[in-house]
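RESIDUES AND SHAPES:
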Amino acid sequence: MTVTDIVELSKTRSRIFIDHEAAFVLYKGEIRSMNIKKDRELSNQSFRYIMEELLVKRAKLRCLNLLKSRDYTRNQLVKKLRQGFYPETVIDNAIAYIASYGYLNDTKYAMAYIKYAGSTKGKKQIVNDLQIKGVSKQDIESAFAQCEEKNILINEEELIEKLLEKKCYKRKDATFEERQKMAAFLYRKGFSSDKIYKAVGLYE
């Protein structure tokens, strides 16, 4: 395999191209120590060391450092590693390692989000948020089921009433336009139409 290009990404890192394809990113000190140069051959031994040891170790540490500050979904960690130009095989190995030690649990992540967002958002919006974060439908359903078992879920009707109270909404005195405006607000929060219409007094 031939190193066909070395493209500088920053003062400390460069992207290595092998046989005209982007392969990986290394620090400049590593490039010098392994004597990697453009138009030179890279041995199979060096390639395996970079892919199976050096980068995998770095990707694992990257994941652990990210998880120190907050929880991430599997999809979010994969995106972070891709942003760092880690090869897909390296990403797979790093994610498998993190998951094997219980540091990555999308159901647990979803439960925490449901508990956090459940005081201001309806189920539909929470589900949409979690899907955007890359949580699978199965993990979301499991999270809601476990939250229900632990009585974490907030009753949506009660939540809607609290939001209306916060907005100083008076159902009996509201005009049709005000009811429509409030219904649109609640719909954006992810509540079901039937609960919204009943709460704001539309189509009674």
The chain has ten helices and three strands. The chain has a mean pLDDT of 87. The longest strand covers residues 21-27. Strands lie at 3-8, 13-18, 21-27.
